[in-house]
């Protein structure tokens, strides 16, 4: 079964990208269903054919998803503040909220007979957040927001090629489109799901605006040249959006295919790969809204990354040929002509992830350790910005849980995705049981996160220890088939001195400071269905 599913990309690019505290950042029936997972932008599934005549094909599809959350002792007792219609804030000590979205899609192709195919896609997303709104200390989606916005609208051509004895496809695609490099650690989400857009956690929006992308997909090499911009609107997103960013760049990947796979177009089909990425920010919002912030100084920034993954160094005698994997990414951000209070930018982010599948054991358990470091500086208002900017982070296509957001409690709602060090351990197994069909799949998991700030002073905290929290989450993920999936999760977090200090710092000015404790929890359920 294809495991290319994603959470708040969890816009985790949550998530894509989810935010955190503005630094970088239900119903019983939902729980009973226990459904969850998001289709990655590149995932190919059977669509409903509406028209097929003389080389012209028109297809339609619909995605729906929903989620429900309960967070006892939210943010270690600081709570989450939602905005009332009067503009005043109301505190929720135990946050309860839900999300729902629908995405109708229309895809078309025309095989011209002249050696190329015309392709196009249009889609929209309607979404809402219910209940208290997301559980950040000042909720970004309180007040039951509802919205319907355009997602994709693109047109292009595909041209088959034969070069150097191989087969390639050249694609030129202009307009609004989903676009990701590898697993989305740097580029994966073009639209942030906050404020009046709704569905902040689920974050079903991916699309960048054009001009567009040129892709060359081959048998062992692929590359992209892109000129895109993020879809930012602080009026819609209540001031929580990322800076509007126009960027141009390229990526080149060498890869090895899994048996029968096509890693040129499908990330999940790569048995191993190495990718070089570079982009230049040609224009970005540099308003004072972003002074001394993690996302300041994008305008003129140069960003380079080296990423890799899969079974890079096969040694059959050690079982490394199929069981051992090693993923990683190193990103460098440089800018010698910044603004927003800085004289230069010198920042980096990275992760290293060795993993092993015990294929000889029952349930075929998979264990990985990931070390993640989002760079930071000792002085939040120094002349050199060293705090890492996650740009278009997307929560990863390889795992539903275990993505790049460090946990379902602290990493999701409290910790900054900058100036942060994460030790992460994930253990998952697939029991040989089938609940409703012969090919359905249940995956159980345990996920542990140890979070620490690199420099508490860089987050404006003085005389505070580095440790933010420890967290353990338990998950059950169910996939009925390629179009229907589900999950439930429960977790507990234990605060450290930096975590409690972050909780205190996030309480809105003028509101009473409540007792900040040692524990916080989460219960969540969500579903995904493709028609």
UniProtKB/TrEMBL annotation:
What highest taxon heads this organism's lineage? Bacteria
Full protein name:
Alginate export domain-containing protein
Source organism (scientific name): Acetobacter oryzifermentans
């Amino acid at each position: 079964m294809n495991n290319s599913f994603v959470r708040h990309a969890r816009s985790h690019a949550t998530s894509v990208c989810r935010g955190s505290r503005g630094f970088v950042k239900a119903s019983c029936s939902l729980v009973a269903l226990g459904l969850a997972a998001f289709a990655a932008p590149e995932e190919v599934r059977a669509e409903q054919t509406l028209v097929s005549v003389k080389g012209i094909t028109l297809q339609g599809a619909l995605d729906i998803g929903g989620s429900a959350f309960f967070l006892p002792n939210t943010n270690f007792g600081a709570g989450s503040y939602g905005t009332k219609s009067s503009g005043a804030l109301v505190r929720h000590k135990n946050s309860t909220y839900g999300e729902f979205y629908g995405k109708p899609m229309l895809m078309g192709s025309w095989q011209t007979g002249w050696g190329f195919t015309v392709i196009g896609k249009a889609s929209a997303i309607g979404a809402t957040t219910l209940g208290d709104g997301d559980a950040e200390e000042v909720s970004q989606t309180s007040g039951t927001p509802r919205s319907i916005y355009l997602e994709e609208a693109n047109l292009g051509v595909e041209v088959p090629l034969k070069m150097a004895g191989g087969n390639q496809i050249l694609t030129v695609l202009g307009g609004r489109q989903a676009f990701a490099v590898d697993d989305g650690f740097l580029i994966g989400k073009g639209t942030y799901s906050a404020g009046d857009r709704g569905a902040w956690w689920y974050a079903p929006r991916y699309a960048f605006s054009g001009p567009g992308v040129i892709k060359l997909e081959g048998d062992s090499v692929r590359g992209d040249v892109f000129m895109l911009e993020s879809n930012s609107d602080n009026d819609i997103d209540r001031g929580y959006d990322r800076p509007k960013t126009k960027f141009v760049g390229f990526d080149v990947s060498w890869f090895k295919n899994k048996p029968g796979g096509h890693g040129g177009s499908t990330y999940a089909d790569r048995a191993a790969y190495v990718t070089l990425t570079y982009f230049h920010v040609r224009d970005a919002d540099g308003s004072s809204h972003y002074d001394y912030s993690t996302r300041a100084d994008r305008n003129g920034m140069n960003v380079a990354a080296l990423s890799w993954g899969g079974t890079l160094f096969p040694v059959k005698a050690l079982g490394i040929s199929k069981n051992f994997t090693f993923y990683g990414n190193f990103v460098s951000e440089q800018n010698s002509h910044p603004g927003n209070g800085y004289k230069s930018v010198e920042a980096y982010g990275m992760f290293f992830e060795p993993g092993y599948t015990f294929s000889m054991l029952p349930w075929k358990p998979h264990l990985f350790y990931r070390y993640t470091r989002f760079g930071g500086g000792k002085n939040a208002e120094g002349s050199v910005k060293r705090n890492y900017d996650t740009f278009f982070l997307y929560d990863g296509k390889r795992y539903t849980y275990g993505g790049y957001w460090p946990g379902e409690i602290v990493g999701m709602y409290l910790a900054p995705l900058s100036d942060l060090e994460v030790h992460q351990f994930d253990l998952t197994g697939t029991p040989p049981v089938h609940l409703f069909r012969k090919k359905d799949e249940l995956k159980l998991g345990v996920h542990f996160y140890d979070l620490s700030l690199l420099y508490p002073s860089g987050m404006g905290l003085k005389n505070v220890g580095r440790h933010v929290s420890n967290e353990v989450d338990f998950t059950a993920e169910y996939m009925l088939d390629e179009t229907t999936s589900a999950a439930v999760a429960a977790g507990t977090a234990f605060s450290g001195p930096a975590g409690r200090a972050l909780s205190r710092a996030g309480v809105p000015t003028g509101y009473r400071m409540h007792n900040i404790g040692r524990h916080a929890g989460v219960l969540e359920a969500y579903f995904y269905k493709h028609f």
